[in-house]
Amino acid sequence: MLTVANLGCERDERVLFDHLSFSVANGMLLQIQGANGSGKTTLLRILAGLNSDYTGEVLWRGQNCRQTRQEYQQALFYLGHAPAINRTLTPLQNLRWFCGLQGFSDDAAIHAALQQLGLAGYADIPCHQMSAGQQRRVSLARLSLSAAPLWIMDEPFTALDKQGVAELEARVDAHVTSGGAVILTTHHALQTRHLLTVVNLDALRTESA
Amino acid sequence: MWQWLYKLGSPRHFYEMTTGLVPWLTGVSLLLLAAGVVWGLGFAPPDYQMGDNFRIIYIHVPTSMCGMGAYVLLATMAAMHMIWNIKMADIVAKVSAPVGAAYIALGLITGALWGKPTWGTYWTWDARLTSSLILLFLFLGVMALRAAYDSESAGSKAASVLAIVGVVNVPIIYFSVQWWNTLHQGTSKLGGAGSANPPEIWIPAFFTGFAVIGLFFVAVILRSRNEILYRERRTQWVQDLLQKELTHA
Amino acid sequence: MSRSALGLAGSLGTTLQRELQLAFSSPGRIVNPLMFFVIAVSMFPLGGRMSAEVLGTIAAGVIWVTALLAVMLSMESLFRSDFDDGSLEQLLLSPQPLYFHLQVKVLAHWLVTGLPLVVISPLLGLLLHLPEAGYGPLMLGLLLGTPALSMIAAIGTALTVGLARSGLLLAVLVLPLSIPVLVFGAGLVDTALNGLPLTGVVAVLAALLVLAGTLAPLAIGAALRISVH
After folding, report:
1. Best residue in A9, A10, A12 to probe B by mutation, most B CBs within 10 Å?
2. What three-state secondary structure class fits B234?
């Protein structure tokens, strides 16, 4: 699906990575590893198309992502550091907008997604009245609403309790089983039934140095 | 021709190609300036209406016009930077902004000095003065925005967007200010250094005009060269150059 | 499943709905620019002892400049929280056309911040002894001009949303770009008070609005992509 060819990125005159090439196919789970400041987030943002300060190419189904932006964004689900949940609005209002941005409306699915994450009855409560973990769950509810085959997730396990982590792991597994692809970063030892592919940015740098 | 332009787009080639050009351009500009100033201030006949006051136009007119041209240059470079991601275009955009702003400011100051004896006031909200003032504001905005960013690349792109938005706005601003001026009639129109003037008056103006434009490019090229050396300080060719300079000294 | 596909209009509708919900759940977004507008305008007569006649002649200019400042100060709420909480990234990554979503977002922002200024402007005209013939042109001008100002100010906001302290910088960027709208907006009142025909000026204001409404979203989009870096 996604091919990265000869990717390089510099920040503040420091080379984060260079000549980075890999590809992500259906049913693949890819973890980006590296120490703090090694450029994991930058790499994910480049893959998502949020950062255009790089050399090399990111190809979606063989075509440059910059040229096929709309098609690529249709196929992409991105979960960043920030939850992308407005604290003034309720979960229902937040998720309705998310669905609207994907081009559909489905209140029943929103309620089902919230229920699945243990947030039944919270649909109409402003998000600022919830705990950080609950807000994170609202953010994760978007996973069940998105039909995108490619998930890019930056530290998705942050602020989740044990049960939340296990649930999210199961969800990632299910997505990979059903033929989707996941690219993620995490500091946590990922439990998965699938083969975990690893791209290590630290190793890459020592190699090239 | 295209290859030449293409080469100019690379900072290293720009640096190497301008090394020989700078002394020539500086020399010719200074000669023209000296000739124009001596002729214009010393020998050109006084204007029949304004007497000797008119002589400030030898500096005022070229600096103002060159300042306006500098904004177009800035916006063109910004567009080239945004569309083709040419590094050299961004360098020229960055370094030409303060020079252009200084030219516009000089134009405004000389205009005020000329206005006092001619119109009896340093400042009047005449269409041309007002447009120049707004252009100065646009320059300052682009510079301030670039300076506000920590990241060089983000700052340069943001400044480029603003410069392009500004240049789209410039004709509209000029049009609105002219309309506003007709609504509030009150300022006198300058008779104009038109064709009625004898050649002894306008030939020195050509001299100083070319000199001022030449010096603008000298300043832009020198500043560009500094910026190139700074941005490329880690590269081999700059290191080699430095090594050569050090052994010379 | 009850999933129903939304067309472009439906998708834009959700953006409009969200922006309005946000405004109504934190009423300061609506009230603060309005209070600023009223209070700042009332400062002018207090700042200098002016006769009713002099006040009347500067009324349009004062109201327009203050409206411009109010629009600019209200811009903080346009992208700030979306930038901080990551919603802006989701907007940029949406498969829906960004251009129209930005247009709708600014329009929604104008509905809750700009439109109230238009509605209350006659009251301020009263405070400043604006001659009677000026009220209609004042409101009409603001109705056409404030959305154009919102569009222009949104460019500056998008360029500075990634910066920590952006208030003054925003003013430096946006004020010079707003001059044409200001000139023709305030000029519309002057034209009316001089008894001249208004159609030409109204047409120019409408043209400026169309121009800002169609071109600004392109610049806003480019600026936001730079800001989320």
Report:
1. A12
2. coil
How many C-beta atoms lie closer than 10 Å to residue C25's C-beta? 14
Q: At what angle do helices B87-119 and B57-84 cross, to 10 degrees?
A: 150
Give all strands of the β-sheet with A63-64 in edge-to-edge order: A14-24, A2-11, A55-60, A63-64
Contact with chain A for residue C100, Cβ under 8 A: no
The β-bridge partners of A152 are A78, A183
| B177/C184 touch (CB, cutoff 8 Å), yes or no | no
Q: Where are the domains of chain A?
A: 2-208
Give every CB contact of residue B45 below 8 A, 6+ residues apart in sequence.
B198, B200, B201
Under DSSP, is residue C36 helix (H, G, I), strand (E, B) or coil? helix
Q: How many CA atoms lie within 13 A of B189 on its CB side?
A: 7
Calculated CA dihedral for residues C8, C13, C16, C20, nearest 10 degrees: -170
Residue range B132-150: mean pLDDT, rounded:
95
Cα nearest neighbour of B231 on chain A: A13
The average pLDDT across B89-110 equals 96
Task: Answer whether C226 sits within 8 Å of B151, measured CB to CB.
Answer: no
Are the C-beta atoms of A4 and A47 separated by less than 8 Å? yes
Please judge whether B176 and C179 are an interchain contact, meaning their C-beta atoms are less than 8 angstroms apart.
Answer: yes
| Chain B residues touching residue C175 (CB < 8 angstroms) | 137
User: Would residue A79 be called left, alpha or beta, if left means φ above 0 and alpha means ψ between -120 and 50 degrees?
Assistant: beta
Helix intervals (H) in chain B: 2-8, 11-19, 21-38, 57-84, 87-119, 127-148, 152-183, 199-231, 236-248
Q: A2-208, what's its fold?
A: Rossmann fold (3.40.50)
| pLDDT attached to residue B198 | 74
Measured from the Cβ of residue C138, the count of other Cβ atoms closer than 10 Å reads: 26
Chains touching B by CB (3 or more pairs below 8 Å): A, C
CA distances from residue A19 to A6, A7, A122, A207 in whole angstroms, order as listed = 4, 5, 47, 11
A chain contacts of residue C96, beta-carbon cutoff 8 Å: 100-103
Q: Which of B154, B168, B175 sits opposite C226 (nearest CB)?
A: B154
CB C90 within 8 A of CB C212: no
Per-residue pLDDT tens over the stretch C63-119:
999 999 999 999 988 999 999 999 999 999 999 999 999 999 999 999 999 999 999
- The token pair at B109 is 């100051």
CB neighbour list of residue C109: distance below 8 Å, 6 or more residues apart = C19, C23, C74, C75, C77, C78, C150, C154
Which chain B residues have a beta carbon less than 8 Å from that of A53? 153
Average pLDDT over residues B206-213: 93
Instruction: Say if the Cβ atoms of C176 and B165 lie within 8 Å.
Output: no
Is the CB of A124 inside 8 Å of chain C's CB atoms? no
- 8 A C-beta contact, residue A80 and residue A120: no
How far, in Å, CA of C218 to CA of B220, rounded? 30
| Residue type for position A58 | V
C65 Cα to chain A: minimum distance (Å): 32
* CA-closest candidate to residue A43, choices A154, A140, A118: A154
- Give, for C91, the enclosing helix (H) or strand (E): helix C87-92
Which domains can be identified in chain B, with CATH numbers?
23-186+196-248 (1.20.120)
Tokens coding C63: 């109201």
| Cα–Cα distance, A52 to A45 (Å, whole number) | 9
Distances (CA, A) of B227 to B92, B100, B222, C87: 9, 17, 9, 37
Question: For residue B10, what are the CA distances in angstroms to B75, B89, B228, B237?
Answer: 19, 9, 10, 13
**In the Cβ-directed half-sphere of C44, how many Cα atoms lie within 13 Å?**
25
Cα(C182)–Cα(B165) distance, integer angstroms: 17
pLDDT tens digits along B230-240: 999 888 999 99
